[in-house]
Amino acid sequence: MDATSKPHNIPPVMALYAEKHNIFQLMQARWICKHLSATYLCPQELVQSMLLRRAREAMASESEDEKIPNELWVALLEERLNDMDCVKLGWVLDGFPETRKQALLLQSVGIAPRHVVVLYAPDTVLVERNLGKLLDPLTLEVYHTTFDWPIDFTVQKRLVRPEGISEQATAKRLLESHRNIPGIIQTYQESHKAINADQPCVDVFAQALNFVLSCPCSDAPFTPRVLLLGPPGCGKNLQAALLAQKYGIVNVFFGDLLREKVAANTAVGDLIKPFFESGYPVSDSIALSVLKNRLAQKDCLTYGWVLHGFPHDVDQADLFKHMGFEPNRVFFLNLPTEVAMQRISQRATDPVSGERYHTIFKPPTEEEVHRRLRRNPKDAPRKVETKADFYSRQVTGLEEYYEDGIFLNADQDPYTIFEYIESCLVKPLPVMRA
User: CA 153 to CA 146: how far, in whole Å?
Assistant: First the structure.
């Protein structure tokens, strides 16, 4: 028996409701959302949302009986997934994509669902279910002549047949679905599960929920997603550079990402600049938007990445996880504060040559060079100590959050550290927890 077919404890209230109403795909998605406390999304909700910038454009297309372009659908969904409820809680998307082209467009912008549930049933069953639907125009509640007939006689009298569910229209939609489903399954070949919907609703829900709660596992890091955490001075920058150089993965330093936005005079950079000037941390919403845009680029998706400088605390780590870019290797580079102080506070730069020196490990050989050395204000002992104290207050929570984290002693030769990191990269990937 595979993990997705094992029995699951279904909440009694859910079971009674499902058996009573016997509603299928829509309620499967909604009950999964309720069970996981996730956000429910569907195409119609995207079109009708006045909070999305291009929703009016989509509504205009619908009002003129024009087909909404695939690119517009993807733009609406991408914008909606950036909202805090989707980032924080996760999401369940119902009824989209409908074609392989739409699925590939989603992948091209970095939207890759971890689990894809495909519900199927004989055409005769689907036609019977669809033709029996009736709508209460007052409450918009959907009923069924066979499975869910309302007890209230007043409700019975006002029921109407929804548009687009005639036998001919249903047959046309089924034919279109049969043409498109194989392509969609091919796109999500490694992450989908087909479930027979011609059985009690509670059983369909149990199978779908078990699948969604299952944890994908890979035997090799085809796309390494490495996260380096540690106090200032622990060598994250060097280790990231070595990994990027040897394995071709993308070196993503979060601090540089923000500075690049400011230097380029972008709209996001204008939002970041006041934080830099005031010395306060950049807000999580802006930070995550910048980070997501970078990790969703083709080089990161193709070759993998090594990230350092983010997250700073558990809240950011949780937001990062729900953004869809969860790391598959997390390294904690541990370093005593006094060693960090020695490493950072004693370093300086020659403003003429740009060469970096250290008064203990790499002192200049010429007196003239020594006299003109300048220290970065950020390397002042008090600022280094403040950063180290902040990290020490957050690291316990981060260690608990990343249970599969790998701990390293950073107070040793950097190439010894790199060799250990390499050895961990080639091990099988850990099982990712839901």
Answer: 16
Contacts (Cβ under 8 Å, ≥6 apart) of 395: 229, 231, 332
- Residue-wise pLDDT tens digits, 355-411: 888 777 778 888 888 888 888 777 788 888 888 888 889 999 999 999 889 999 998
Tokens of 363: 């002192």
Full-model pTM: 0.49
CB 58 within 8 A of CB 72: yes
DSSP class of residue 232 equals: T
Query: The tokens of 342 are what?
Result: 């020695």
Distance CA 237, CA 255 (A): 11
Place of tokens 């008090």: 382
What's the half-sphere exposure (Cβ side, CA atoms, 13 Å) at 428? 7
Report the run of H or E that residue 110 belongs to, with start and end.
none
- Residue 144, Cβ neighbours under 10 Å: how many? 18
Q: Is 395 exposed, middle or buried (0-12, 13-18, 19+ CB in 10 A)?
A: middle
